Amino acid sequence: MKLTLARYGIGTLILTLGLGVAQARDVRPAANEQWLSQKVRHELVMLPWYGVFDNLEYSIQGDTVILSGQVTRPTLKSDAEARVKRIEGVSRVVNNIEVLPLSPMDNRIRLAMYRALFRTPGLDRYALAPVPSIHIIVKNGNVVLKGVVDRVADKNMTEIIARGVPGVFSVTNDLRA
Fold first, then answer.
1. Half-sphere exposure of 175 toward its Cβ, with a 13 Å CA cutoff?
2. N or C: less crowded end of the chain, CB within 10 Å?
3. To which H or E segment does residue 113 belong?
4. Shortest CA distance to 97 belongs to which of 68, 55, 66, 64?
């Protein structure tokens, strides 16, 4: 009788361990993707020339990282790809980052937009971080505001101020509150 119980006990233990391994396999990709996402974000934010006039975004599909966004310097595009390729667990990088065209008019708009937004009381706190949470993307006189603000009122205020900057053709407010 003891021998029979022992056999059932071992069979149950093996079955339980097998289910535990199957469950661990289901959880591991999600945890790995979260870890990979944190590493990619860290590497992109730490790029030396990444600033308020650039916007870098990414998505992860398995072990492939897809980069997108807009940058003012071509070297930032290649640096972002090189940094992400070095991360453990990344086998492929698709670099869809757009390099914004060189334009003296766009440069004037960027500078005027920066001054208008970050000299405004209440919005000035967003300029204090090494990489501000508001990104100003200017392409051919069209402005896109990207990033994160604390309140909906700040989101609305940035759009009102941006529309008042001379030389701006259109403003798209993609800020998240």
1. 25
2. N
3. helix 104-118
4. 68
